[in-house]
Large-conductance mechanosensitive channel (Aeromicrobium yanjiei), 137 residues
Amino acid sequence: MLKGFKDFLLRGNIVDLAVAVVIGTAFTALVSSFTSSFINPLLAAAGGRDSANGLGFKIFSGNDETLVDVGGFINSVITFVITAAVVYFFIVVPMKKINERRDAGKEPEPEGVSEDIALLREIRDSLKSRPGGTTQL
C-alpha cells in the first residue's frame, strides 16, 4: 500500500505540478512587487500630471466607485505574462528536456503486427491444420 502511494507521489506530473505551484506562487509575489513599484508609476505618469487616478478615469466625477482603473488592469496583464513566461522557461522547458532524456534511454516498445499480417498468418495456420494441408505455401 505504501509503495503504491510512493509511486503516485513520485509520478512526473504530480511532482511537476507541485513545483510549479510553489515556485509560481513565490514568483507571483516578486512580479507583483516589481509591477507595483516600477510599472505602476510609469502607467500613472502616462495618465498625466493632473490626473490623480493615474491611467484611469471616473465615469461620474466625484464618485470614486465609478473609477475605471486601466493602469491596474495593464499591471495585472503584465504580472500574468511575466509569471507565465518564467514558469514556462524555468520549469516547463527544463522538465521537458529531462523527460526526453529519460525517455531516450528506454527501449521503444515493439509494435504489434499489422492486421494484414495477422490475418495472413491466421489463414496460413488454418490451411496447415486442414487434413492434407501443406507445410509449404
Q: What stands out?
A: The mean pLDDT is 75. The first strand starts at residue 57 and ends at 58.
